[in-house]
Structure formats: C-alpha cells, structure tokens
Amino acid sequence: MQLQQLVQAEKRTQRRIPIQMPIDVLLEDHPTPLKAINQDLSWGGARFVTERALETDSNTLRLFFPWQQDSSFCADAEIVRRETLDDGRLIVATRFFRVPPMSEQRLEMMLAQLGGQQAALPLSERLELVYNDPDDICDVLRQIAAGGLMVTTTAAYREDQSIRLSIAGTEMSSELTLRARVIDQARQLLPGHEWAPLHQVELRFEHSVSDLYGFIRGFAQGLPEETLGRERIRACATRLASHG
C-alpha cells in the first residue's frame, strides 16, 4: 500500500530579491543576445528592463545571468507581462520553465547570498512525498520519466506556480528533488472523510527530458544497500534512463 507523507506548502511569498545586474536575453530566431538590466530575481523567475522592445512574436526566451570568474548560468523563461515605461524602456516579468541542474545550483547560491533581510522567507514552496513500497517508487519514476506526476496533497496550490518537489522512501537516505509546475488541481472528496482537505494535483517538471533521466539514474545509484527492493528500483530506473 502506498504511503505519502504530505507536507503543507509554505503560505508565504517566495523570496524575491531586488538585484540590478547586466544580463543577456536570447530571443528565439535571434543569434545575438539582447542586453538588459535585471531588476529582481526569485527561484521562480526574474524581472528585467531593456532599452527597446523585444523583436519577437514568441513568449519564451533564455536569460543568462553573470556568475563567478566571467562564467554564467541560464534559465529558459516565459513572459508573464511586459510594460513600456514613461522613458520608453520596456520592463518584462518572466517565469522560469526550464533550469539546467548546474544553473539551478548557481541560482540558489546567488539567492542565498543576496537574501539579506528576507532570509526568513523560503526560496521556494515545497512538497515532500515519502513512499514505503518499491512498486510505488517505480510507478513514480515512470511518471517522472514521462515528464509529469499526479499527487494527492493536503495543500492547495496556485495553478501555474512552481514548487520544489522532494521524493524519498521511508527507509532511504537517497532523495530526488525536482522543479515542478502546478498544471491543474481539484478538491478530492473521500467517502466518509469529506472533512479532509485533500487535493489532487497535476505537476509538470521544469527540466529537460535528458535531465530527468539523469536525476532518475542518480537517485537509483544513491540507494543504500539496506533499501527495501533496491535492486527492483534500480532495474526500473535503468530501463527508464536508458532511453536518455
């Protein structure tokens, strides 16, 4: 029988940090990045200002943020809104929909370093799922490999928000942590338990397919020897990740 340990999501706002820095904005079908000034940054997105309009019909773009020793990290983002300021500049609010693993580490390090007085606010809203059956874990891994996951939670999320999803077993030290977007949710009523605040949530992962395969491989390889059904889980993960 499946066991899910459900943790209420943080109700506070994710940490949004004012930070002005030069960034590059790569538009679809444009080989040369556009120069912009970032205004604020969060785990889920960024807001920046440009001197001119974005010459593209697409609502997606790639943002490059400066990092140490002339390196950078990037995130694919979609435009949430854009507004022309009185001085003619354009301010653009974006939401990340795909962040490579290394870029995510650098993003979180930058946010932690810049947090300051907002350190009490979470970087991201979290959902933790814990399973005690190898078959349930294999089923979750299959859904992850397909790019999404259906879960039952005690928390109501906002549609289209990004959350940090952690998946583990009751006897495991290995944990799988992913970025996920809430696609849909519905109140779930169980006969005789109508009082219970349960929600069925549909998630889509904010990672490339190849990154998902890599996460699955790493999760399976990190299982300790005493894990119940370890070889079964590893065999399942190997089959799924072999497609990557």
* Run of helices and strands: EEEEEEHEHEEEEHH
- Residue share in helix: 10-25%
Tell me the span between the first and last alpha carbons.
30 Å
Low-confidence stretches: 1-13
Structure annotation, total helices: 4
Shape: globular
**Which sequence of strands runs across the widest sheet?**
1-2-3-6-5-4
User: Which class of secondary structure composition applies to the elements?
Assistant: alpha+beta
State the total count of DSSP E strands.
11
Radius of gyration: 20 Å
Tell me, rounded to a whole number, the average pLDDT: 85
Tell me the major beta sheet. 6 strands, antiparallel, barrel
**Percent in strands:** 35-45%
Provide an overview of this structure.
The protein is globular. The strands form two sheets. The chain has a six-stranded antiparallel β-barrel. Strands 7-9-10-11-8 form a five-stranded mixed β-sheet. Helix 2 runs parallel beside helix 4 and helix 3 (209-221) runs antiparallel to helix 4. The chain contains four helices and eleven strands. The two termini are 30 Å apart. A hairpin with a 5-residue loop joins strand 9 (162-169) and strand 10 (175-188). The protein has helices at 101-114, 134-145, 209-221, 230-241; strands at 16-27, 34-42, 45-50, 60-66, 72-84, 90-98, 126-131, 148-153, 162-169, 175-188, 198-205. The chain is an alpha+beta fold. It holds the Pfam family PilZ. This is PilZ domain-containing protein. Residues 10-112 form the PilZ domain.
